[in-house]
């Protein structure tokens, strides 16, 4: 087992950290590329059937959160945003530990 396992940050936590960073540095260049990656940790750590929601409900929730996240970045001035998916669950050490 790994001595130091960290949970994946939620999208909301990441946005808060970005706002703190932006406050420190001031402006972000107009040509900046915002690379958003959702992957295994987002699914494995934040979804279980014990939560009482179905897979379609979870998918709808993730889509709604992703749209809100991208809209928040656009509202903050982001013009170039790339959404990238990560490899399937089980491809990384974290998911093998589970």
Instruction: Name the helicity range.
Output: 40-55%
Global morphology:
elongated
Computed structural class: alpha+beta
Total E-strand runs: 2
The SSE order reads HEHHEH
- Biggest sheet, open or closed, and with what strands and sense? 2 strands, parallel
Mean pLDDT across all amino acids: 76
Strand percentage, roughly?
5-15%
Give me the secondary-structure topology:
Layout: H1 11-25, E1 33-38, H2 40-44, H3 55-75, E2 80-85, H4 93-97
Parallel strand pairs: 1-2
Structure write-up:
By secondary structure, the chain is an alpha+beta fold. The chain has helices at residues 11-25, 40-44, 55-75, 93-97; strands spanning 33-38, 80-85. It has a two-stranded parallel ribbon. The model has no long low-confidence stretch (mean pLDDT 76).
List its traits:
single chain; 98 residues
Short synopsis of the structure:
By secondary structure, the chain is an alpha+beta fold.
